[in-house]
User: Fold these one by one.
Assistant:
Number 1:
Amino acid sequence: MKNLITLMLSCVLPLALAACDSGPAPSPPRQAAENVDAARTSQEASAVAMPAQDKGEAVKALIVYYSWSGNIRLMAEEIQRQTGADIFELLPVVPYSDDYDTAVNTATQERRANARPAFSGGVDNFADYGVVYIGYPNWWADMPMILYTFFDSYDLSGKIIAPFCTSGGSGFSDTIAAIKGLEPGATVLDGLHLEDSSGLENPGKAVTDWLNGLDIGK
Ligand SMILES: Cc1cc2nc3c(=O)[nH]c(=O)nc-3n(C[C@H](O)[C@H](O)[C@H](O)COP(=O)(O)O)c2cc1C
C-alpha cells in the first residue's frame, strides 16, 4: 500500500507542478484592461490639446495682420511692443490703390468673386507658434479676402487665436464666428475691437487691458 501511494505521488506531482509553471499568464479583467486603454487615450488626447504653457514651456506668439490705411498696423505694432511677439504683415502681391474709391472697387470685386488675393512671402516655422494674434479691418461686416487666403494657407489647429479688429462702427460683425468656422481645431479667444473715431486715441491702454484679460502669457 505504501509503495502504491509513493508511486501515485511520483506520477501526479510532476504533472501538477508543470501545469503551474507553463500555463499562460492570466489576463487582466476585461474592465481593468479597458480602463488602462481609456486612461492612455485620454492622456494622449490631453497632451495634444494642452497649451504649451501648461507644460511649463514658453509659448511662441505671432502677430499676423492686414491693414489698408494704417489703423490695424498701429494696433499690431502696439501688441508687438507689449508682447515681444514676432510679426507678419499680409502684403498683397497686387497692392490696393491708395485711392479710397479705387480700393473699395477692387475689394468689392474680390468679395463678389470670393477671391483669394495672394500675399508676399510667408511665415517661417509656423508650426512653432502656439498663439497667433490676427488683425484686420472690418470690410462690409467681414474680413478682407486676403485673411481668407491666410486661413487657407496655414493650419491653425491646436493654436490659440486672439483676433483684433478696427472699424468705422460695425465692431467685429460676424468675423469671430467666421474664424471659428474656418479654424474649428483652434481656440478662438475674445478679441479686441477699436473704433476709428474713439478707440485709437489710446491703443496702448486698450491693448494692455486686453492682454491682461486673455491670460495667455506675454
Ligand atoms: C473696403 C472697405 C470696407 C469697409 N467696410 C466697413 C464696414 O462694413 N463697417 C465699418 O464699420 N467700417 C468699414 N470700413 C472702415 C474700416 O473698417 C476702418 O476704417 C478700419 O479702421 C480701417 O483699418 P485699416 O486702417 O487698418 O485699413 C471699411 C473700409 C474699407 C476700405
Number 2:
Amino acid sequence: MENKLIKLALSVGFNRAEMIDASQIVCDRKFREQCEANACGVFGKCWMCPPDVGQIDALIAEVKSYSKGLLYQSVFELEDSFDFEGMQEGGRTQNQRSRALQEELNKLGYTDFLHLSKGGCGVCSPCAKVHGEPCRFPEKALSSLEAYGINVSATVKNTSMKYINGANTVTYFGIVLFKE
Ligand code: SF4
C-alpha cells in the first residue's frame, strides 16, 4: 500500500513523497497564533481556515489519532527571492496537485483519511464563508497543515526531505493521514 500511495502522489506531479509514521509528526499549538495574526488575510474568511476549521487542541488530537502519513512536496523555481508572483503560481499549482491527489484517492475508494495541503482551501474565490453560505464543495475542500498545528519544518527534519531546497526556490508540502 505504501509504494502505491507514493507512486500516486508522484503521478499527480509532486516532486517527492514518502510514508512517515505519525510519531514523526511534530505539532505545536503556536501555529494558531500565526493564523490569528492574519498575514494571509484569510483568517475568518474560509471554512477550512481558523477559526472556523476548529479549535487547535481538537485538531491536533485529530492528527494524532492517525497512524501513518503520506507526506509530499513540490519545489518551484523562482526568478529571485522577491518573486512573489512565482510563489503564488507555485502555490496554485500545489493546490491543483493536492486536489488531483484527493480525486485519485476518492476514485480508489479511500474514505478514512485526513488530507491537509498548503494554506487555505482555494477551491472557490471567495469562499462561501464570506457570504455566510455553507461550503459548496465539501468533497474537494482542503485545510492546511498549519491550521491543524503541524510544524512542517520540524516534521520534515524526521524525514528524507528538505524544508528548503536551494536559493531561488519555494517548497510546499502536504500530507494525507491514514488510520493504518
Ligand atoms: S470548497 Fe469553496 S466554499 Fe468550501 S471551504 Fe473551500 S473555498 Fe470555501
